[in-house]
């Protein structure tokens, strides 16, 4: 599959042959869903917790005698039905992550890349570099390319000036090729890859 390559200024920079095994697959929502769910579950902290009846700092003595008062039978004041008591079945600190086979994760990334290519939401730029590191310059370049909601993937090292300029632009994410992931690809409207990123991805999936 051949794809058009442009410069950051929006000028034509030739064509690049990309692998159909990575960018030409038929998207599968079930695989993409599994990978996104795995990513978000792994990201979840799981540090939320409430106190149960055994953790409440109140007396455990019987509130009043069992019979003769005309009131309901009660024991400890720590039980959930009383204000200040423990919470029943509340959240506890735990790990939300679950396993997902490496082959499924790799397939999910290929399918996400293919989905962007099939939807005409994939742009390849010869080099993600900005000499002056000015946000204003980058905004003008993005306007020429029609980018307002995009994920930009550079090579192994992202140009410092480009990264600094992009930090102040809303709905724009910049990652090195090692950080590419399914969730970030799908959450942005357009995927922008540098030529170095395409080469690294093809080498990764050989």
From TrEMBL:
Q: Which domain of life is it from?
A: Bacteria
Key word Ribonucleoprotein present: yes
Enumerate the InterPro entries for this protein: Ribosomal_uL4, Ribosomal_uL4-like, Ribosomal_uL4_dom_sf
Q: Which SUPFAM superfamilies match?
A: Ribosomal protein L4
User: Which Gene Ontology terms of cellular component type are present?
Assistant: ribosome
Q: Which UniProt keywords apply?
A: Ribonucleoprotein, Ribosomal protein, RNA-binding, rRNA-binding
Region spans: Disordered? 64-97
Ribonucleoprotein as UniProt keyword: yes
Q: Where is the composition biased (Basic residues)?
A: 64-76
**Family the entry assigns:** Belongs to the universal ribosomal protein uL4 family.
Q: Which NCBIfam families match?
A: rplD_bact
Assembly and interaction partners: Part of the 50S ribosomal subunit.
What protein does this entry describe? Large ribosomal subunit protein uL4
Q: Which organism is it from?
A: Nitratireductor aquimarinus
What is the name of the gene encoding this protein?
rplD
């Amino acid at each position: 599959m051949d794809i058009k390559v442009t410069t950051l200024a929006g000028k034509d920079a030739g064509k690049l042959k990309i692998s159909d095994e990575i960018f030409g697959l038929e998207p599968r929502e079930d695989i993409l869903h599994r990978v996104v769910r795995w990513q978000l579950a792994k990201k979840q902290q799981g540090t939320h917790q409430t106190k149960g009846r055994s953790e409440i700092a109140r007396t455990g003595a019987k509130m009043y005698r069992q019979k003769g008062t005309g009131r309901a039978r009660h024991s400890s004041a720590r039980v959930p039905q009383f204000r200040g008591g423990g919470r029943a079945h509340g959240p506890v600190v735990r790990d939300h992550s679950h396993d997902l086979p490496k082959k499924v994760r790799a397939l999910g990334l290929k399918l996400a890349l293919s989905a962007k290519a099939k939807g005409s939401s994939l742009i390849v730029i010869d080099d993600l570099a900005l000499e002056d590191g000015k946000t204003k310059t980058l905004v003008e370049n993005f306007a020429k390319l029609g980018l307002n909601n995009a994920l930009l993937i550079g090579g192994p090292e992202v140009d410092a000036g480009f990264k600094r300029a992009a930090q102040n632009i809303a709905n724009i994410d910049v990652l090195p090729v090692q950080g590419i992931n399914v969730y970030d690809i799908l959450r942005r409207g357009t995927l922008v890859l540098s030529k170095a990123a395409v080469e690294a991805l093809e080498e990764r999936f050989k």
